[in-house]
Each structure stands twice: as C-alpha cells, then as structure tokens.
Amino acid sequence: MDALDAIESVNTFIGTKDEGNTFPGASMPFGKAHSSPIGSHYAGYRYDDQQIRGFGHFFLSGAGCWEQGGLVPILPVTQLPSTFDHKRYATRYSHDGEIGKPGYYKVKLDRDITVECTATTRAGVERYTFPAGVNGTLLVNVGQANDKEPVSASSIKVIDDRTITGTVETQAFCGGRPYITYFTTRFDRPFREFGTWTPAGPKPGQRESAGGAGLRGAWVTFEPGPVTACTALSQVDAQGATTNLDTETSGKDFDELRNEAQDAWRKELCCIEIETDDWDERAVFYTALYHVLLQPLTGSDADGRYRGFDNRIHEADGWTYYEYYSLWDTYRAHNQLLALIRTQRSKDIARSVLAIHEQGGWLPRWAYANQETNCMTGDPVTPFLVDLWRFGHLEGREEQAYQALLQNVDGIPPESSRFQGRSGNPHYLKNGFVQYDKRFPKKGQDTDPHHGASATLEYALADATLAIMADALGHEEDAERLRKRGLNHRNLWDHSVTDRGFTGFPRPKLQNGAWLTPFTPQGPDGFHEGTAWQYQWLVQHDVPGLITALGGKAAAEARLDDFFAYADLLIDPARTVREKWVVGPYDYYNQFRYNPNNEPDLHAPWMYALIGKPEKTSVVVRAAQTLFVNGPAGVTGNDDLGTMSAWYVFSALGMYPAVPGTGEFVSHAPRYARAVVHLENGKDIVIKAEAADVTKTQVVERVRSGWLGRAKDRIELAELRSGTTLEVDLHTLSN
Length: 735
Hints:
Blueprint: E1 26-27, E2 34-38, E3 51-52, E4 54-56, E5 74-77, H1 86-89, E6 91-101, E7 104-109, E8 113-119, E9 123-129, E10 136-141, E11 151-160, E12 163-171, E13 178-187, E14 193-198, E15 201-204, E16 208-212, E17 217-222, E18 227-234, H2 238-249, H3 254-269, E19 272-275, H4 279-292, E20 297-298, E21 305-307, E22 313-315, E23 322-323, E24 325-326, H5 327-330, H6 334-341, H7 343-360, E25 366-368, E26 371-372, H8 381-390, H9 398-410, H10 425-431, H11 452-472, H12 476-485, E27 493-499, E28 502-506, H13 532-535, H14 543-550, H15 553-564, H16 566-571, H17 573-581, H18 607-610, H19 614-625, H20 643-653, E29 655-656, E30 664-667, E31 674-678, E32 684-688, E33 698-704, E34 714-716, H21 717-721, E35 724-732
Parallel strand pairs: 32-35
Antiparallel strand pairs: 1-2, 2-4, 3-6, 5-10, 6-7, 7-8, 8-9, 9-18, 10-17, 11-12, 11-16, 12-13, 13-18, 14-15, 14-17, 19-31, 20-23, 21-22, 24-25, 25-26, 27-28, 29-30, 30-34, 31-32, 33-35
Helix pairs in contact: 4-20, 6-7, 8-9, 8-11, 9-11, 11-12, 14-15, 17-19
C-alpha cells in the first residue's frame, strides 16, 4: 500500500481511551449511520474494554454526555446464549489483527468469529465470518444500546428470510426527549431459523416482539459460510429506512461497499496534503482531519425527506439536510475549518440551521436529531452563523439569517417553546450582565443564569460578532448597539480580586447586582466548565479593553506567562503541558492554568499574538500539540464532535480563527515543511516552512506572500480563498 495513501494514514483508534469518546468503526463522511463495536463505555467502544457486546449502527464522535446511541447492535454467536442481556452475552476479542481505517473496521472475536465493518451514508454494514462448517447466529438487539443509553420502547419484526425491520425509542443526548429511529436490516443470503425474545424470554419461530423498556430482539441462524448484514436507519418512517437500504446497498456485496466508502474517504482526506517523513505525524494529522469530517451528520433520507423541529416531514430538494450540532464546541474551530475546506457542505449546514429556525421557531444551541436539548450555555449559534456568512455560505439568505439571529440575541423563547435560547437575556439586556442564580428554572440540562459570569462573556462575544454582520448588511443602528453590548464583559471585571499575585478578574454578580461572595478565580461558581482564569481570555473581540483591565501590555503578557507556565514550556514543553496544564477530562474547576482538554480557552494561545507577542503563541501551540499522539489516548479530553481535532488541524497548518466573524486567521509556526490545502473552488493554499522541525521550539520570523493587504500576523480569508502561497520563515529558540 502506498505510504502516502490518506486512508492508510488514519488510525481510528485515536481517541478511544481517556474519554476522547471517539469510535473506531466504519462511517462515511458526515454519515447518518455507522458500524462500530460496543463495549462497556457510554460512548460505545473503549480500547481497554475486555468484551464486545455487539456492533451498533449510530454513534456520536467525541461527545461528553450519556445517551450516545449504539442503536440496533448485532452480535455473531455460534449458539444461543442463556440470557439475552448483552452485558452478559458479550464476547471477548483480540486486538491482534484489529484494523481501524476510514470506512473499514475488522476484529476477531472468541470462537474464531471474524467481523468486518463498512458503511454507506445511511447504512452500517458487517460481514460475519464463522468457523468452517459451523452454523452462524446473529443476535439483533433492539432493547439495548450503548451503556447508559436508555431504550424506552422497541419493536422488531421478521419480514422474510432475509429481512428484519423495527423501531427503537431512545433518550436523546444530554437532557433531550425520547425519539424514534426506524431500521431495516437485510442479509445477503437467507437464514434457516429465527426467533424473537422479550423480557419474558426467547420465543423460537415467533416473528414479532414489541413493547416498552426491557430486553427485546431477534435471532437468525444461517447455514455455514460468511453473512453480510446491512442495516439502514431513518428518523422519518419505516419506508425511509427501507428506501435508504435499497438506494445505497442494493446489488452490492461487502467488498464493493467497502471500496466505495474508502474511495469517498480518500477523496475527502486528500483535500489537505502535508509533507512529512514521520509516520506518527501523518497519523495524528489525518486522523484529526478524519474526525473533523464525521459531522454534522446527514439528516435527510435518500429521497430527501427529513423530520423537522416541528416533528413534521420535510423534503430537502437538491440539497442535504444536516443535523446534530454541538455548537458550544464547534463554533470555535470546527465550523471554520469546514467552511474553508468543504464549502458546499457548509452551505447546506447553514441552510439546515435556518430550517431549524423556520420549523422550530428559534435557533438551536445543542441540536440532537430533531430536537433542542438546551445543553451548554451562552450563545454559540451567533458566531457559528456569522462565520458561515463571513465565509460566503449564506448567499441569498443573509437577511433571513440576520433576522433569526437578531430574534435570538434580543429575545427569549416563550415558556411553551422547547428552546431555551438566551435565558439570561431579560437581566442581561436591562443590566448588562447575566445574573448568577442556581435556582433559575431550566428546560434541559443547562440554563445560562446557572453560569451567569461565563454566559455574560459568551453573550458579549456573540453580540460583538453579530455587530460585524449588522454593519455589513447596512443595519447601522443595530450594529452600534450590538457593539456596545459587546463590551458588557467589562461589567463583571472586579479590580479588587487578587489571585496568585495578579489583580482583577471577571466575577459573577447576583440578581441585585452585588458581587458573589465568597469568590475565588479558581472556583466553579458562575462559570461553565471552567474558572475565571480560563474565561478571562474570552474577550478576543475587545483586546484593548482587556489590556486596560489587566494593567497594560506588560501586565497582560505576565499573566499569560503564568497562565501557560511559559518559563517551564521553554525548558521542557511536553512535560510541562502534562504536569501543569492537563487534569482529568472532566476536572474543569480549581484551576489557574490553560485547560487544553476543554473549549472555553482553546483560543487563549493566540491572545499572545493579539497583544503583540506572536512568538509566544508559537511556543505555546507547539507545546499543546504534544498532547496529540498516535495511540488510543491520542486526543486530549472529549473530541466534542471534531472540535479538538479541528483545533489540531489549524494549529498544525500555522493559522487559527481566533476572533469569530472577522474572517481573519492569526498565524503561528506550522509543523510541516510544506502543506497544501485544496479548496473546492480549484484554488490552493500552499504553506511553506522549509525550516520546520517539530523537535525544536520555533517561532515565526516572517510570513511572505503576494498579498499586499495582509498585516504581518494576520491572514485574511480573501487571500486564502483566492489561492496563495505563504512562505514562513522560522527561528529556532535555544533552550
């Protein structure tokens, strides 16, 4: 195999340990359905699991909540188990010979059973190979899914000697409601025996099982030989699942489907080329790019139908409806990377988010299937959509998007709406900050006043971002008031708070305007998944204001130095980041340093550049990159639907979208001597850094190109889209 084949450069096991929460099985780019093993972890598979419970057909990549799918798991066995609880009938397996590549997964189970997985956009596919001369049985489980994924109702029906259909009602992610998935499973040859099971036990020869929560499924037994099973999903109806199956798998064997999946991935992954002789470097980069290209997921069926946020059936005619939006995460890097390298999909993503508004009445925050979960806080949809506008992906829908965003930033959904929106808006619009109130009622897992300080900072960033769009569209009065609201973060700056020798931090305020007391900048109160130390930097839209609050540029630099343990980074970057930055993936609080495991301060390394110290950005970014390695523990924290991976891709290329809505990328030292980004408009972005050496601490000395309008430390979107060659001169620091 060609060593430069992008398929061979991906290791899908990266992120399957230490709560990276990725899955190793097969998918198509942005696919609705998957085929991947299920173990004892709520995200599906964990590399050090001892057993596999089945091969499920729906997963989220890198999410941090429970209720993550694993629907309709199938497990091959050589005889019926004594119990139909998959926790008890699970089988051991071996990592020897296990393969995880884009569009293909292979593993050997106990009793000499081999399973291979591939996928189409809307179907997961397995080939089960049993020992010679042995009848093979497949257990199709609809009553169970991933660990901690409640199944509240299910049904299964044996249609004929090759086909099974059914439904699974499961709890949506992170505080959502139950929803129904329809499936059709078809085998490439007839089975000779079958039966179903219920909570009461097995029933040989019975074709149907349906009811509420509890053990439920069917088994089918085949004459000796390999069996291929294709399982298509739909949230529309039973016919949708069957149509998806017929459209994408009919007349094709496993090898043909695998080749199609891998060809699709090869085409997607080749959008970026890097020059490196280090195999681990290639694996880390291309696996990160692979994880970026997994989501959002295709929502429309093969016939264009999809279930909207009004629970009605709609049709995407001539475009693809996408769903599953972890916006609190993805607005920070993932969205911009897709907008740059996958323009047509990004246009459909923008159209999909607007469809959510049309059908649901409000814009989403964490949209799962066809419902809003109200997970996380702040206002991520505003920078998300404004960036898509900035990249040109709202063409013809600019005013529609703007009015939806204006409704979102100026209002609040009614009590009858499932959307919670900016629940802190009444107090924010009147007083300039979101109150900290842990008793504030919520519609889902989260609500903004429970994290009033960080919500204020997120609102202000969103307002400042929307002001850019308002100004460009000619809404001058809106732009002016939104710009002023973008400074509301200053209302929470308390110049009396001192910590670690530094004075002045953002501090929560109560309903009556009083400061929260007692308060420590390292504590959890008022900030969502972070502390005042991390959130103080979430003002990249108002760097002059931050510099003033911190006491000047020298004081700002000193605080950043302490935040990153900069002096230690210069001596031993890899050790420093693991000993002084990294804590457990869910230990968000009691911290005063950079948390590379989580999103609120992902942009913080570029704050050095924004205050005029770009060389220090390069030092910090190179150090952070050491957390990404070619192994199961190779993702830092949850990958969060490709967000951490997108961070890595941008950081490796040498540019990062630090300030939403501006279309500007802040430059830093790239990792590779040469990288080429192939844009869909036929233009190329060529990044040359001949002196690049990842074993050394390097900073940017100069960036040269033919673009005359570019500031030294900024790369403009217009330059990138028109095609450009960036020649980066690097300087190596002596330790």
